[in-house]
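Question thread 4412

I'm putting together a teaching handout and wanted feedback from people who do this every day. The idea is simple: show students a protein as raw sequence, then show them the C-alpha cells that encode its fold, then repeat with a second protein so they can compare. Below is the first pair exactly as I plan to print it.
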Amino acid sequence: MNRVPAPLLALTAMVSVQLGAAIAKTHFDEVGAVGAATLRLVIGAVVLALVVRPRVRHWTRAQWLGAVGLGLALGGMNVFIYLSFASIPIGVAVTIEFLGPLALSLVHTRRWRDALWAVLALAGVVLLGVGPTAVTEVGGVVWAVLAAGCWAGYIVMNRHVGAAIPGVDGLVVSMVVAMLVSLPFGLRSAVDGVVREPALLLVFGAVAVLSSVLPYALEMLALRRMPTRVFGVLQSLGPAIAALAGLVVLAEGLSVLETVALACVTAASVGVTLSARRRRGGPVG
C-alpha cells in the first residue's frame, strides 16, 4: 500500500462508499430502504467490533455520552440518506447531503470570499429546488436534508469524541449505537428479506465492507501521507462520484439543472476547503 499514491487511496475510498450505496439500492425492493441501512450498520458494526475490540471498561460518563451522540448522528445519517435514495437519484441525494458539512464550514467564517462560496452553494440549492427531482419527489429531498443535518452533527461530535477517546474505540462504539438506532425501524424488513433470500447477507456484507470498513481503512492510510487540505478537496468530489455510481450501477441520469447544481456545490466545497487552509496560515499549493 505504501507504493499507492495517497490521493488514489482517498479517491478509492470515496468510490467504495458510493458503489456500496448504489449496490444497496438495487436491493431496496427486497429489504426496504431502512432495512438496507440496518443490514449495512449491523454487519459493519459487528465486523469493526470484532476487529478492534474497543476497551470501554474505564470510560467516563462524558466519553460515553460523546460516543452515544456520535452514534445517534451516524445512525440518523445512514437511515435518512437511504430513505432519500429510495425516491431520488443518488447523485442528487448526496449533493444535498453535502450541504451539511459545507454549511458547518461556512458558519465559522466572516470573510467576504467565503460568502461567495456560500452564494455558489445557494445557487446549487436553488437549481436543485427547481429541478425535476425536487418538484416530483419532495419527500426524498426532505430525507436528504435531514441526512445533511446529521452529517454536520456527526462532524461536530466526531471532533469531540476524537479528542476525548484515544484510538478508534469511540468510532466503533458509535457504530454499535448507530446500529441500535436503526434496529427498531429496519429489523423486521431486513429479517424478512434475508429469510426469503439468504444470499442478501452476503450482498450486504459486501456493502458494509465497501461503505464502512474499506473506506475507513483507506482514509486512515491516505491521511498519514497527504495534507488534510488535499484530502478535503478530494472529499468535495463526493457528489460527482455518487452521480457516476448512480449512472453506472442504477442507470440514474441527472438533468442539466441537477448537473449544474452538483457542480456548484462541489466547487463551493473545494473553495471553502482551500479558504479554510488559508485562514490557518498554511500554504495553498
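The second pair follows. I'd like the answer to focus on this one:
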Amino acid sequence: MNEHRAMPELKEIVGALLFAARQPLGVKRMRRVLRETAEVQGGVYAQYAEATERDLAGAVESFVRDLEAAGLGLRVAEVAHGFRIENRPECGPWIRQMLDRNRTPKLTKPALETLAIIAYRQPCTRAEVESVRGVSADQMIRNLVELQLVKATGRSELPGRPWLFGTTQKFLEHFGLKTLGDLPNMEELRRAEREARERKPQEPSGGAEDGGADEASRPAESEPAGEQHDTGPVARED
C-alpha cells in the first residue's frame, strides 16, 4: 500500500520559513517563495501559490498563537517590515551567557548620539551631524558604516555634492523597530543637541573626535579627509 505524505498546512510552511530566514521575512517575500516553489516543484505544491498576502498574514497569526500556547521560550516579533522568530526576553540571560554576548563591543554614548541624529534627520550630511554635535563626525560615521548601522544613501545637491547618510535594515533589526516611524519621540535628539551645545566651548569643531565603539569594533583609521572634500562611505548596503 502506498503511503501518501500529508502536505503541511500554510501556517507550518510559514513557521518553517521564519525559522530558516536569516533576516526578517515579510508576507510579500513569503508569497514569492510559494510561487517560485510551485514553478519548480509543480504538482501538489501549486496549491500554495494561490495563497494571498491576507492568507499568509492569517497564517502568521495562527503560527504565533500556536507558538505562544506551546510555551517554548520563543516568540515572533514584527521588525524591519517583516517577522522573525526570536527568544523571549525572559530567556535572554542564559542565551547571552552561552553566546558570551557581554564581550560584544558596545556603542559609546557619542556614537549613539550620532546615530540618533542621523536616524531623525536622514538623509543628512556629515556637516549636518557636526553642526549638531559640535565635533568632527568623520571617523564616527565611518565606524557606524562599518557596523552596518548607517549607509550612504546618495549625494546632496549642495556645493561639493557631499554624501548623504541614513540608517540601514540592520539598524531596525538591532533596535527591534518595525519601521522608522516607530522611533521614540524627538526628545532624545533634543537632548543630544542640548548636550552638544553645552560641550562646544570645551570641544570646538575640528578638534579631537569621539570614539564610536570599543577598540575591537573600530576599523583602521584612514588619512584625514581634505577640508574641501567630504569623505565617502567605507561600505554601502544595496
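Top answer:
Good format. For the second protein you could add a caption like this: The CA atoms of residues 124 and 164 lie 5 Å apart. The first strand starts at residue 74 and ends at 79.
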